[in-house]
Each structure stands twice: as structure tokens, then as C-alpha cells.
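Project outcomes to date are best conveyed with an example. Our students and postdoctoral researchers have been running inverse folding experiments weekly, and each run begins with a structure described purely in C-alpha cells. The record below, which covers 126 residues, was selected by the lab manager from last quarter's runs and is presented without edits.
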């Protein structure tokens, strides 16, 4: 059984490097210091999300359906992945408010809260 490569040290949390590569076919070994690619920095959950995102060609509605999660949750997962890969996720405060607004609207659509409750919560966001 092959083990997956980990990207962070389980002791201190710093990024790991690969120091030896081996070919099981011919037996050659290469020693040195090799960096892990950016995708190795993702957690298993984040990598699963990325694969699902690619499978659905970035269609957030399809991802919502496949994962049975709301739009704000999909956006949060996407932002977490982007941030972990080193991309700048700008307008954090604005997007956080937009995500909260969408969560309220999702609750209203699922009849988890009343119109008046949703209205009050939306007013409190401003």
C-alpha cells in the first residue's frame, strides 16, 4: 500500500521537502532537495473539493448539489483553497458580509427562519 506524501511536519508544522526519489522499475535513486508542488499543501478535504470543483467545471450550483452544502459554504471552501495555495483573497470583509447575507437567504428559502427574522438579520448586517 502506497502512502501519500505529507507537506507539513507533524512536529513543528513547517513545510517539508523531499530528499530522495526512487524508481521501483529500474531501482535508480536520486538524492537532493525537492520542493512539493502547491497542491500538496492542501488538506485531504480541500483536495477533494478541488477535484469536485474541476469535475463540475467550476459550476457552484452543481457543487452545492453534489456536496449538499450552501453557496456560502462552497465560497468559503473555495476561498480557503485559494488562500492555502498562496493566492490573495481580496475584499474579505465585503465577501464575509455577502456570505452571511446568502446564509440568511438560504435559511429563509429552506423555511428555517421566517421572513421577519430574515429581514431583521439582514438589517443587522449593515
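After processing, the design step wrote out the following sequence:
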Amino acid at each position: 500500500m502506497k502512502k501519500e506524501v505529507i507537506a507539513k511536519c507533524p512536529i513543528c508544522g513547517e513545510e517539508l521537502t523531499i530528499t530522495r526519489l526512487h524508481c521501483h522499475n529500474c531501482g535508480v535513486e536520486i538524492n537532493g532537495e525537492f520542493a512539493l508542488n502547491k497542491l500538496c499543501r492542501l488538506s485531504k478535504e480541500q483536495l477533494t473539493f478541488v477535484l469536485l470543483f474541476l469535475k463540475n467545471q467550476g459550476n457552484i450550483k452543481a457543487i452545492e448539489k453534489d456536496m449538499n452544502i450552501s453557496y456560502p459554504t462552497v465560497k468559503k471552501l473555495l476561498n480557503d483553497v485559494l488562500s492555502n495555495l498562496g493566492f490573495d483573497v481580496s475584499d474579505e470583509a465585503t465577501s464575509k458580509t455577502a456570505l452571511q447575507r446568502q446564509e440568511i437567504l438560504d435559511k429563509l428559502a429552506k423555511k428555517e427562519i421566517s421572513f421577519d427574522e430574515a429581514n431583521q438579520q439582514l438589517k443587522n448586517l449593515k
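Strands lie at 18-22, 29-34. The first helix runs from residue 44 to 55. The training component of this project remains on track.
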